[in-house]
Amino acid sequence: MTTSYRQSKFINPDQDPNRDLTSFTAKENGSVGKPISKVIRERLKSLGVKYFANDSIAEYISDGEREELKLEIEDKLQGLFDALVIDTDNDHNTHETAFRMAKMYVDEVFKGRYHPMPKVTDFPNAKALDEIYVLGPISVRSACSHHFVPIIGHAWLGIVPSDRVIGISKFNRIVDWVLSRPHIQEEAAVMVADTIERLIQPRGLAFVIKAQHMCMSWRGVKEPETQMTNSIVRGTFREDPTAKKEFFDLIRGHGF
């Protein structure tokens, strides 16, 4: 039996304390009965907001809508299994796979699209520290935009601080949040660097990703050993060759 998608109620914001998208109501936009994905897509278009695979749209979705979206995704995934001629009614292994996948995509592997960035508190650089510090390896888990199969690897980060700093664990959370979307690795590295620069405006920032792509090892050429490495260097690391060399020398001692 195919899972039945429960249509969006599109709750009035006055009745839903989680919803702060107050200009969008069913009455104003004729949203009653529409799939929630269409409601969200029309909202993004009306606001001129880009919603590519590696974009975050979390600030335009309420908590309630995110739950409705999982129901719709579950229904669409069930249609995929039906088209693949998989008997999910009687196969105990795949009976609830559509439900599990919908939850996985929205709340886990693509949470960087649908959930807000973890709270990051910055602090004054009280001692005016101006030396390089390096973090890594940071686990990288993402998915290829072309085939939606995993990208798995590690990242290394170098910072020359300015007047604001954040706790080192927050860098791991930022990397995980940005990478938890369908990506192209080169674009992912730029997005991580941009996010960190917006938060603390470091004097220098260096970021390196080294990862294996399952679209190459699991399918296609089926090459299990090839990894892709790319780097971003900004500020001090771009302007000062000595600082750049120091960063790469340091990450070699961190497993790069």
**Percent of residues in beta strands:** 15-25%
Number of helices: 10
Q: What's the count of strands?
A: 7
The proportion of residues forming helix, as a percent range, comes to: 25-40%
Morphology call: globular
Q: What structural category do the secondary elements indicate?
A: alpha+beta
Average pLDDT, rounded to a whole number, is 89
Q: How far apart are the termini?
A: 50 Å
Q: Largest beta sheet: what is the strand line-up?
A: 5-2-3-6-7
Enumerate the spans where pLDDT stays under 50 for 5 or more consecutive residues: 1-19
Q: Could you give the order of the helices and strands? A: HHHHHEEEEHEHEHEHH
Q: What Rg do the Cα atoms give? A: 21 Å
Assembly context of the chains: single chain
Strand count, sense and closure of the main sheet? 5 strands, mixed
Explain this structure.
The chain has helices spanning 26-29, 36-47, 63-83, 97-109, 111-114, 168-179, 185-200, 214-217, 236-239, 241-252; strands at 122-124, 133-144, 150-160, 164-166, 182-183, 204-213, 228-235. It is of the alpha+beta class. Strands 5-2-3-6-7 form a 5-stranded mixed β-sheet, sandwiched between helices. The chain has a two-stranded antiparallel ribbon with strand order 1-4. Strand 2 and strand 3 (150-160) form a beta hairpin. Helix 3 crosses helix 4 and helix 6 crosses helix 7. The termini are far apart.
